[in-house]
Amino acid sequence: MEYDVEKIRSEFPALERTVNGRPLIYLDNTATSQTPLRVLEAIREMYVSHKANVHRGVHTLSQEATDLQEQARRHVARYINAHSEREVIFTRGTTEAINLVASSFGSLFPAEGEIILTVMEHHANIVPWQLLQSRRPGLRLRVVEIDDRGVLDLEQYRRMFNEHTVMASFAHVSNVLGTINPVGEMIRIAREHGVPTLVDGAQATPHMRIDVQALDCDFYVFSSHKMYGSSGVGVLYGKEAHLDRMPPYQGGGEMISHVSFSGTTYADLPFKFEAGTPDFVGIAAFDKALDFLEEVGVDRIAAHEEHLLRLATDGLRSEVNGLRIFGEAPRKGAVLSFLVGNEHPYDFGMLLDGLGIAVRTGHHCAQPLMERLGIPGTVRASFAAYNTEAEVEAFVAGVARVAQMLG
Ligand SMILES: Cc1ncc(COP(=O)(O)O)c(C=O)c1O
Fold first, then answer.
1. C or N: which end of the chain has fewer Cβ atoms within 10 Å?
2. Which uninterrupted H or E stretch holds 320?
3. pLDDT tens digit string along 278-331?
4. Looking at ligand 1, which atom is closest to the CA of residue 95?
5. Phi, then psi, of 381 in degrees rounded to 5
6. How far is the CA of 278 from the centre of ligand 1 (A)?
7. Closest CA relative to residue 150, chosen from 303, 309, 338
8. Ligand 1 site: residues with CB under 6 angstroms?
9. How many other β-carbons are positioned within 10 Å of the β-carbon of residue 200?
10. Whose CA is nearest to atom 7 of ligand 1?
11. For residue range 362-394, what is the model confidence (pLDDT) as tens digits?
12. What's the CATH number where 341 sits?
């Protein structure tokens, strides 16, 4: 079946708007994707017909809201091939999911130990471990390097494991370089040493189908808003045996079995980790975002994006003098980070916005990586299911024009 990008675009009302008098060309998909009508309609439907607190009421609305939330949980579990829906915890996003693991699972670490990260991590997979470290000064962070193409040094990673290693936590796909890490192999190496793994899948799940049982990771985390869903919803997948052992992360309603001032018992999984009213509206709508990914086919989306990435890369290379691309790994997702000469990325972003082109500029929440690359930031274009060849051509022409204006 042909990839019908116009049909896909027709589901995204945001793509119809103009910016600075030009049609919007949205190339900041790594930060967040736009939202299809079916998700918007699901949100509206929740507010119009089913807005009631979940798991709390016997009344019809509450039961409907609960059913819709739990239907989404079952869908997520199927989508990532979790062993059980008890292993799917809803969080506010990838960031909260990693904080949950670092805080709760981290509290079970021995007093002394080493946590392996990589230099390409988003701050969301650095700072939670540093916070843990500030409470547990015997823990040490070890950082795996990359080569000049942005490929992870797998040998260094392998050598880093020793009897002190307590955890390995790494991105599946880099949000700056686009590098797709060999997470299957990385998990296998960790497993050989009996070390649990967390995979930050924020940039993988919009572009590839994940099978957590095949990967055999201990934790896998991602965000709905990067997968055509709404903001405020994320997923922590964790192996049930770990989640069972882990203490609650936050306390409050939903996560208890019985509360008294002499002691409290906690709810079963997954609710033990879902204190307070969840974003049941966004969770119910996430069900529809997964429908979208399944209907279009995430593999077909990835192939389309890869084609656009190649066009954009070749286009910039032939049209723009002084171009430097950051991230040239052989296995790379649809992210194009670059600089032109000594121009500041911010100026590029502002001038491209004047042409209706939305790109990201700055350090992309990956300051240690910027330090490694010896730059303050990059301009980053990133592609999604609905981007077109014409948009890529306009982007290349736009960058060439801005480079000329600045140069
Ligand atoms: C690799 C990676 N990890 C974590 C995050 C944080 O995601 P969120 O802000 O949805 O929690 C991002 C967001 O850009 C990311 O790209």
1. N
2. none
3. 999 999 999 999 999 999 999 999 999 999 999 999 999 999 999 999 999 999
4. 11
5. -110, 140
6. 19
7. 338
8. 31, 93-95, 122, 124-125, 171, 175, 200, 202-203, 223, 234
9. 29
10. 94
11. 999 999 999 999 999 999 999 999 999 999 999
12. 3.90.1150.10
Instruction: Find, among 119, 122, 126, the residue nearest to 147 by Cα.
Output: 119
Residue 232 belongs to a domain: yes
Q: Are 249 and 97 in contact (CB under 8 A)?
A: no
Same domain, 235 and 360: no
Q: Which residue's alpha carbon is nearest to atom 15 within ligand 1?
A: 202
What is the number of the ligand 1 atom nearest to the C-alpha of 173? 1
- 360 CA to middle of ligand 1, Å? 14
Name the pairing type of β-strands 22-23 and 18-19. antiparallel
Ligand 1 center from residue 189 Cα (angstroms): 25
Q: Which of 263, 279, 294 is the last residue of a domain?
A: 294
Query: What span, in angstroms and rounded, lies between the C-alpha atoms of 185 and 275?
Result: 35
Q: Which residue has the tokens 């190649």?
A: 310
Distance (Å) of CA 398 to CA 251, 349, 355, 356: 50, 11, 7, 10
Task: Give the domain range for residue 160.
Answer: 40-294
Check which CATH number belongs to the domain holding 199 and give it: 3.40.640.10
**CA–CA separation, 174 vs 135, rounded Å?**
28
Q: What is the pLDDT of residue 160?
A: 98
Active site residues: 365
Verify that 200 and 323 share a domain, yes or no.
Answer: no
Does the pTM surpass 0.90? The reply is yes
Tell me if 237 sits within 8 A of 53, measured CB to CB.
Answer: no
